[in-house]
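Dig into these lines:

——
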Amino acid sequence: MAGRLAAGKGLFDLPQPMPQDIGLERLADAELERGYAFEAVLLMGDADTISAARALQRHAWVLEQFVRDMRSGTAEDWERAFRQFQEKRDEFYVAARKSLGVYAAFRLRAEDPVTLGQDPRQL
């Protein structure tokens, strides 16, 4: 949601930008849902998963601050913050999968050959 709003502000290159008036309300609803999901992690997650979820949450809030004009920055600043969010999301997935006993291989975004190649929007 934040990515679509950032695209509407010219900070991010996505094919479906979202206007502020519509997106901010949807973002507030998404934040409420994220809060409910976070409570479940706090209830059932182990210490590593909870720590990873907290880090992910903080990085999600940074993205929200960009689109709510609570944080200024360039498109490069947004991209950096978004990459950091993606890294924290991967770390959360790794911790949660381990906690749940899911031992199938998981490739971090930064190591995935698909994401290391040419941007599919440029093909």
The two ends are 25 Å apart (CA to CA). The chain is about 65% helix and 0% strand.
